[in-house]
Predict the 3D structure of the following.
Amino acid sequence: MKKNWWKIIAVLFVLYTIIAGFLFKVPAQPILHETIRNLYFHVPMWFSMMTILFVSLWYSIKGLSNSNIESDIVASQAAHTGMLVGALGLITGSLWAKYTWGAWWVADTKLNGAAITMLIYLAYFVLRGSIDEEQKRARIAAVYNIFAYVMLIVFLMILPRLSDSLHPGNGGNPGFNNYDLDSNMRLVFYPAVIGWILLTVWIFTLRVRLEKIKRKILLNE
Amino acid sequence: MLFLQVKYLVAKEVKLEMRNKYALGGILLYVVSTIFVSYLSFKQIINPATWNALFWIILLFASINGVAKSFLNETRGKLLYLYTLVSPQAVILSKIIYNSLLLIVLSALCLFVYSVFIGNIIQDLSLFLVTLLLGSIGFSSLLTMVSAIASKTSNNFTLMAILSFPIMVPLLMVLIKLSRNAIDGLENWDLNYLMVLVFLNIIIIALSYLLFRYLWRD
């Protein structure tokens, strides 16, 4: 129980996010209207994704330095979890775009970035799938993961700042912290971010445990 | 020490390429025939966006074909022999330098043939050439590394495309933006994008330098 306090926090925060996110008062904004509540679900997904992909990168670097198979399992499962929250982020974002910008998908640097992220990690899974030898797979997948992550960071962090985006805070659009995100919304938004990140980490630890057991069964067969 | 090894390895690559010219000729012919096919279907292109996009797509595919062979065609025995003699850093750096030279020749030819057939609408040629030079170096270093990764797998040529396209996008977007500026002939060079391009090249080469030694031992 002592070790699991953060799981309780995750459940409480996400539960609070869902209840408060749908019931609490939000500022009335033109165009956004009630869809502003999506802020509690869409934005934390990307925070969770970047956190878990960083975990994946970390374990890939670790795997290269100690050539341990377990690091590779952890890195790949972190990437899988990242794709899960990434897909959720895309779905919530697509819904939000439909109601505010009028289309499911628009040509926007951040949307392109999200699509490229998915492609890079799908390629990573294909690469892992095409090498049979375990040690070799761990090493080569780790190299690709590090290489891809750095290119991704450039794409997600630098390019959007050089070009316009429809997202708040870019291209002359006011950011949410300017006036939209009043202190009431902060009360829900910050717990939402922490809650979703913790929940993602929890899913990730479960996946890692499952994969380790699967490997153990395979080795004992 | 490293410098000497790199020098010898580059010289070796050039000598091997010159010894059987069909590979080099094949890739140059690939560019020319692709452009000619585009010319037959498009005739002249006046729209800058289309001109630019078609140019980079042709160059992208030609580069992938040109660089892919750098590791995919190496035999196991030859690599093993190489590994006993030189450091991994020398191998990757020499391949990057050699492929950069190859791609510079390739892109120069591509630009020449393309402007002859499709039409030349570039207003700021010097910016376009700088973009092309930096782009060739970036393409070659990225594709050399991906080719090294893909050569370790079983179905390597398909994987080469799958692995390289997504990570090439940041580079490609900066290149397309800069060459568009060159075509439009903007008064000032966009130093932000040029800096990002140089920075990207440095990152790719540094990562290849650091990570290649984990790839080569089997």
